[in-house]
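Action item from last week, closing it out:
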Amino acid sequence: MLVLTKRGLYCPAGDFHIDPSGPVDRAVSTHAHSDHARRGSRTYYAAASGAPLLKARLGKNLPVHPVAYGEPFTLGRVKVSLHPAGHILGSAQVRIEAGREVWVVSGDYKREPDPTCEPFEVVACDVFVTEATFGTPSFSWRKGADLGREIHDWWEANAARGLNSVLLAYSLGKAQRVLGVLAPLARRPVFCHDAAAALNECYRAHGVRLAPWRRLGELGPDERLHGELVLAPQGFLESERASLLGEFKTAFASGWTQRWTRGCDRGFLMSDHADFDDLVRTVRETGARRVYVQHRGHGALVRHLRELGLQAFPDTALAARDPEQFPLFG
């Protein structure tokens, strides 16, 4: 059903790629993060709620076909449908059916509640291609943690000391999730880096409730912040705009904070990927008899799944014997 080529996962029967690494004829996109969505393909298929994010990242004239979750469409000789992955707004798993066999490509996914995106849906299949960004037993999230309250309390404690709070977070997905968990708590605007502003608007247009926010770019060159929360990507602290901060504390929001905080004063364990236990749980709930693992394909998850009696392999096992037999566009 799928082969791994130099442009990524390819479905010969449907003549399409999933999250190709370069220009192709037909791209089925799991979500709008830059390591999954790239410019140059002739046609894109994406979940309807994720299509505006693709256009915000790749260009407003991007040739994208929005598809409702669960709505089947045909490409070549296969039936395809997209299903919520719970990673960010509009993130999707790709279900591919041909004959009596069903494959599902998970894309990036998480099982934790997130007020800013559609919750993960278990999709039954014969073969499951799963991500494994945090695919070792050492990664385990605190289930049910009130991250909104933790972030708000940190912000307020810093403000009481006359300090600004700089929370470093990815501009797509993580920044909006922070705004989402702060929505019931924040009484004054969060200042967002301009890189997140257009993406925030996509979320708001979809009806996602976010805390009040303002663009950092609205501030004049001589203005300074006092006791405010700033959401920004990591490079912000090295930019000229950081001069408006005065005295501040820093924090980092990511699953990686379980191991390090990248030199910040505080870490918030907020991951948009499944931890090890949820990866195993998801594989078992799909009922798949065969599993291919991406990102950490030679690691602990494959070994553990084999111990459970499943046929588990790194995604490199899908490599085509002759990749040139699948001509690429561009």
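Closing note: The CA atoms of residues 50 and 144 lie 26 Å apart.
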